[in-house]
Amino acid sequence: MRPQIVLFGDSITEQSYRSGGWGAALADTYSRKADIVNRGFGGYNTRWALFLLHHLFPLGSATPPVAVTVFFGANDAALLGRTSERQHVPVDEYKENLRRMVQHLKECCSTMFIVLITSPPVDEEGRKEYARALYGEKAMKLPERTNEIAGLYAEKCVELARELDLPSINLWSKMQETDGWQKKFLRDGLHLTEDGNAVVYQEVFRVFSEAWLPASKMPYDFPHHSEIDPENPGKAFQQQCLGV
Amino acid sequence: MRPQIVLFGDSITEQSYRSGGWGAALADTYSRKADIVNRGFGGYNTRWALFLLHHLFPLGSATPPVAVTVFFGANDAALLGRTSERQHVPVDEYKENLRRMVQHLKECCSTMFIVLITSPPVDEEGRKEYARALYGEKAMKLPERTNEIAGLYAEKCVELARELDLPSINLWSKMQETDGWQKKFLRDGLHLTEDGNAVVYQEVFRVFSEAWLPASKMPYDFPHHSEIDPENPGKAFQQQCLGV
Question: Catalytic residue positions of A?
């Protein structure tokens, strides 16, 4: 009965139920109104995520999600010739993969509300520190992602959203508006701190509320407890729960 | 494809996706393995929750939840003749209502793993402070819940679990083992602080892991990214995603 909002993405989505996470915050906001379904796949790029499309969003489903956030790019933007090159996807293919995702989602349900989210900026110094902490002296000296290249992917994502007339969140730009974004929003140069999660939550909440359906306008799935008459509780449930 | 674990309860379940909440922490633990579905209904007692049973857990469902936490009592234990009396349910009825819930869940799926959770202890001083903050001088001088009465409900809950051979979590006892539980675990004498949420999470995690299925033993729903061959990504998806 409760509509579903799916968060589709990589590790930044998968980890969004950690303490202070943006997924959990959305779930709390839509509490009793919609289910937030986490479909984050750590390490996945858009090329690999395409294999999941028909499984996560089967055509002909009687209850497709009402909204989906599509949040990829952090792994696609890994550089060739560096430690994470296996995840690399060329930027034009990244854009076309996103397009295929949107086409598929629209085929599932033409009224589905789709939001494209760019990957966050990259703090190269933070990535290096992280690599040194993991691998010590063996850590590669050259970063496996750069902020500049991540910016090109973000641009393509926003460009596609414009072409398809979809809302988008340019996290790469948004976060860099704040001084000290490197440590304030990113805990290892790439993944989000609680403050970083708060930015994603606020942006998704804003886009949902402005362009779609604010949680406050959605009905509770069953009567609010204050509407239940303790002398005759069945009455409040009658409409929604006939036959019980 | 991903199995569902349903959290069925009152506001302490409904609010479990707030920052540091036990529901979000479980969702993070079972990430990529099971979906944690929040079916918390703030203000509900067991009598009202019975009206929801067939809707939340329809008989004959092809995909019933694999596990359910049943976490009621905080509202049932509201005292007659006090400000929350409309929520009051006599303690023997509370026990029978819980029994009907379990019977229904077992009818849905005889192998469903069901855990009964008692309500937390009540800090009467905390409740009074909360009432004064809300209603000022108009606040009733007598608490609408007492810890002693909450303890009787907890006893009945644990008693029923024993009769039905189900695991239970006696939160009422467990929390009182810690000095200063009143402020450490409860933010308004009844609802949980982050520390209180951590206790619920740890207990549910322990019961799930000991008596049922630890997250670590459950398979990922799709290949881990490290298992994907970048030269031939289709191979890793072949078994699970035939036909894509």
Answer: 11
Test A241 with B52 for CB contact under 8 angstroms: yes
Which of B52, B87, B222 faces A41 most closely, judged by CB atoms?
A: B222
Q: Residue A57 is part of which domain span?
A: 4-213
Reduced to 3 states, what is the DSSP secondary structure of residue A44?
coil
d(CA A139, CA B120): 49
Distance to chain A for B145, nearest Cα, Å: 18
Tens place of pLDDT per residue across chain A (244 aa): 799 999 999 999 999 999 999 999 999 999 999 999 999 999 999 999 999 999 999 999 999 999 999 999 999 999 998 888 999 999 999 999 999 999 999 999 999 999 999 999 999 999 988 888 888 887 777 888 999 999 999 999 999 999 999 999 999 999 999 999 999 999 999 999 999 999 999 999 999 999 888 899 999 999 999 999 999 999 999 866 554 3
How far apart are the CA of A237 and the nearest CA of chain B, in angstroms?
Answer: 7
How many cross-chain Cβ pairs, A to B, lie less than 8 Å apart?
Answer: 123
Round to the nearest angstrom and report the end-to-end CA distance of chain B. Answer: 16
On whether residue A92 sits in a domain, the answer given is yes
Neighbours of B237 (CB within 10 A): 19
Q: Which residues contact B149 (CB under 8 A, 6 or more apart)?
A: B77, B79
- Please indicate, yes or no, if residue A226 is contained in any of the structural domains: no
* Residue B10 C-alpha, separation from nearest chain A C-alpha, in angstroms: 10
* Domain count across chain A: 1
Q: Name the residue in chain A with its Cα closest to that of B238.
A: A51
